[in-house]
Amino acid sequence: MSTPIYYANDRPHIGHVYTTTLCDVYARSMRAIGHDTFFLTGTDEHGLKVEQSATEQGLTPQELADRNSEEFQTIMSTFEMTNDDFLRTTDPRHKKQVQAFVTKLLEKGDIYLGTFEGWYDEGQEEYHTETSARDLDYTSSISGKPLVRATEKNYYFKLSAYQDCLEKLFESNPKFVLPQSRKNEVLGRLREGLQDVPISRTNFSWGIPMPDDSEHVIYVWIDALFNYITALGLGDPESTEFAERSDFWPASYHIIGKEILWFHSVIWPAVLTALDLPLPHCIYAHSFWIREGRKMSKSMGNFIDLETIESYVNKYCLDAWRYYLVTQGPLGASDADFVSDKFQDIYTSHLVNTVGNCTSRVTAMIGKYFGGVVPSESQDGERLVFDGFDWPEKCKNATEGWVAGMESFSLVAAFEAPMALIRDIDLFINDTAPFKLAKEETNQPQVAAILYQCIESLRIASMMLTPLLPNKMNEFHHAIGVDSNQGSFEELLSWGGIQEGTTITKVALFPRVDQ
Ligand code: ME8
User: Which of 86, 111, 380, 476 has minimal Cβ neighbours within 10 Å of its Cβ?
Assistant: First the structure.
């Protein structure tokens, strides 16, 4: 699974952190379930934008790429991302393989030399068809600048030859592009007909040279898309990377933003098909974060930059930041508004009042009534069951919901499962009132069973929440004497994991924060 590789012409912002966090949560979940997982991210360092930004800043393109790529790598560790590799497109291992793939496409006749004229978005380095240029009113939807009429002698990729193949792909594999509404957009544009696309440039030099024709550099998008397979060594079967990583292709998910869906869902599958390589299982295109109702853009200067993100992390904690991003973000077809008041509300209601309150309530009661030692849920060898609260069954259902949600990348639905379980535990405590029962010595077995069932259900909920809230859940596991790295997923999620007699301590995971 992969993020896009981010442009090294600029600094990271919330959009980059968002997509990478989604992938991180998914990767951690898949590892927990027991799937072999390879999580790839990196930086896209060639092209006109990097060359121009470097010139503006008095740097060489390589110096600018080094500086910004380093910042992207630093945020991977600051935000505790568990990526297995960080690919840079200026890395020789990548460049060599891109040239090998392009050579193969030239040999097969899928790339040829020709002349092209079209509407060009200079900022995006992207050509538009007449229809899409007209729809855009001949203006870039990203920068707002006019599209320019451009003519180039170029190498072309024979995209038009893949029209039928792509239409069949979309028909036979309805989940190739998600969410569904995005797929319909691509299909609509696809049905307008495909033209061959230029895949080389001569107006600048910062790129990978075309094999045997150094006047041309390979178009940055072709160069960049290949990252998904060069990181796995697919263009160099002799390499150790190929030996160790090639089984990770095809990817389960390419997670991207909606603006780069065309490249990923049309051009990329056509290139892979031309190379006789299998296709990724799914291209998942999320929507955009906007801020306080307005689009974020460089010209408006309202991007949520790293400094702003760090102020939230310092105030609320990293896990709270991850929680807000993943559960309130633009995962579906609509954009999501980043609003400070909403962040505060979600933190308080979901993390302080739900996860924090329930874990502290249960651990405190075990402390108060059982000296911090986990009691038994059985009396005379028989489990006590409370009406309407079959916890092993509830936990099993929640786990199934979580796994299904995670595997289909429905992260919001997935994390609703453990959150609902925790709300249910609170309800159970209010209903059975162990704090009242505890006043009578004879009720001891009931109080014991209630608290065992609470702590055990909380443990199971916490296993599901770990990929999202890794630090806080580890803190919780430490307090309740659980090692979440020991045992298979089935074992960790089965009822009865917490042993009677385990000593636990009271936790306070999410302190109240004043706005
Ligand atoms: O497009 N909300 O790189 P890039 C949510 N190098 N996500 C956002 C966002 C926002 N407002 N803004 C950006 C490129 N993103 C190419 C990709 S891949 C072979 C080459 C995220 O630095 C989102 O994932 O412009 C988007 O696709 C990506 O950042 C674009 O990053």
Answer: 380
